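User: Okay, second chain of the day. Same drill as before: sequence in, structure tokens out.
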Amino acid sequence: MQLPGQEAFWTCQIRQELADLERIEEVLRKQPPTGGPNGNGETHRLAQERFARLIAPWVEQLHDILESPAQAPFDWQNLKQVREGSAAVKQSVLLYLAGLHLQRHVLDPDFLAAAQKILDTLSLSSGVSDRVLLTFAESQGMEHTVGLLTLRFTDATMWALPVIAHELGHHVARVLPHADPALRHSVRPIIQYIATASRLEENESGAQRVPREQITQWLSELFADVYATYALGPAYPLTVITSRATPDRLEDRLGTHPSWSRRVWTMTAALDEMSRLPGDATRMPLYGLLADRMIKPLWISAGGVEPPEQDLERPTEQAREMVRRLAKHAPDCLRYPPVEPREELVSLVQDGTAGPPPGTTPTEVVNAAWLWRLQHWSAPAWQTAEVSRHALAMCARAAPGGGDDVKAATAGNASDDA
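Assistant: Same drill. Structure tokens below.
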């Protein structure tokens, strides 16, 4: 038997990597056209196109390597870099395909439709020009290269739905263009602010110095909280306090996340700043009232403590600047309207006997459901699950947000951003 030389091993491994990428494309092509959560296949078609664009450069590089003269010494380091780059795409494809399986065989169709409706509404209202895709796994997060938002598959209820806005906020921070047309393609106002605020906070941290990279991660999380509050109103902070914050660790800071206390007080400061934005003078103060009458009392009830005024200065100023930048650079319709949740909708989400009234938006349904939750804090688990199902069905059938004015505004943001 004649043993192969190094050239044979080199060629074999390149061809294997090409075969792996071709197999991924084949698997994506074989998925049924109804793969999207709204059942019409549009989401899956977009996913196929995006993955194809990501895979193509790696295939091209591998062919270039394969067609180059094969002679020692072989550039194994270059091949390693190509493999590492394509591995990220493979991981995203696996995540997406696993999510498709959950959508087809496990998750409630009304939840899928409601989640996609909220995601599409907020994306369009934010001026995000490329549709953000939705998938499900064991943890939540945002994959920016593909534009793939992941929710925990166990969170398929109305009470976890507002988390979509937080994860989308991470994406909006990266792609929201500057309002000045001359700076639209060169400046990302949220990323710019986070970088500036990180440097300032690092310089002011004194003896308890925190690395700038960690502060940047914290501010990214805080912006996602501010964005979700700005877009969804009280429903998002209510979700955080009720089902995310752990009462025995409200002041704990993590490497990637600030304390729950800082996060909640940042949300209340955001609502307070929203009341100062230009608008109907008789209605704008409602944002601050929602913070004072809903969010703060619930937080104190959960064991939270209002920090001394000097400890609130930095979170308050950061929240205010984040709100100002959203108001300046995002379309006006992104902001949750200064109205209290409608009692009519609260009754409908409880009864589940009718669809939403004409013109009802998904964000209105979400806030009506949470108002019901506050009014029925001691409701048994079966009833909260039932109201969740009613609210999801209403949200799935609500009028899509955004509107023609947003579509016109986003038409110029052609989609090299997402």
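The first strand starts at residue 133 and ends at 137.

User: Thanks, on to the next one.
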